[in-house]
Amino acid sequence: MKREKILEAAEELFAEKSYEGTSIRDIAQKAGINIAMISYYFGSKEKLLEALIDYRSSYAGGILEAINKDGVLDPVQKMDRVVDFYVERVLVNHRFHNIMSRQLSMISEKNLREKMLNIKLQNAETIKKIIQEGQRKKMFRKVDMELTIATIIGVVSQVALSKSFYCKIMKAEDLNFDDYVVQIKDRVKTHLKQLIRAHLDNRNATAQPAAN
């Protein structure tokens, strides 16, 4: 489909050159199509980015909400699923993550920035509900909710955005990104699950938290 081909070309260029640094002509050349086709499908570069955000993010909120509402999983298992989701989503879709994080401050259109921030806020709110369920069930202690969520997202983001650094640490500097993901993905999942379980465990409630 030409529409998906345009979105994928735009995603690659926005991640590499930034949204502001990419022209409609660049996208058309990358996709191997006429500039008029971009106008036909999207109307403008701003609308194209909006469509890309919807294309990549539409299922994310649904997956997190499904985890939240799962009647079989307990809150600990739900948080494990949240970790799995973020690691898979960020490391596999690293170009889009680059756009949603590193490029966010470079986008001048206010409505686009708001759209991107609202997606992050909605996802964070769902994770918050899972933690609150664990607190109601006396499984989780009271913690700084916002920084707990930031810990999950921050660790995965750091690993995704700092490939050269972590490849150097692992003494595997010749890895491409796909091989890097294979090397590190399960390690990140295991580390984060251990970290978040210990952090939330009600048996580790030894200090009064700063918030929530």
Overview features:
globular, Tetracycline Repressor, domain 2, mainly alpha, single chain, 212 residues
Describe this structure in words.
The protein has 212 residues and is mainly α. The chain has a single domain (56-204), classed as Tetracycline Repressor, domain 2 (Orthogonal Bundle). The protein has helices at 2-17, 24-31, 35-41, 45-69, 75-92, 94-101, 110-136, 145-161, 163-169, 177-200. The mean pLDDT is 87.
What's the structural blueprint in terms of helices and strands?
Layout: H1 2-17, H2 24-31, H3 35-41, H4 45-69, H5 75-92, H6 94-101, H7 110-136, H8 145-161, H9 163-169, H10 177-200
Structural domain tally:
1
Low-confidence stretches: none
- Based on the coordinates given, report the CATH architecture: Orthogonal Bundle
CATH superfamily: Tetracycline Repressor, domain 2
CATH class bucket: Mainly Alpha
Order of helices and strands: HHHHHHHHHH
Rg over alpha carbons:
19 Å
Largest sheet: none
Overall mean pLDDT score? 87
Determine the fraction of residues in helical runs and give it as a percent range: over 70%
Entry summary:
The chain has helices at residues 2-17, 24-31, 35-41, 45-69, 75-92, 94-101, 110-136, 145-161, 163-169, 177-200.
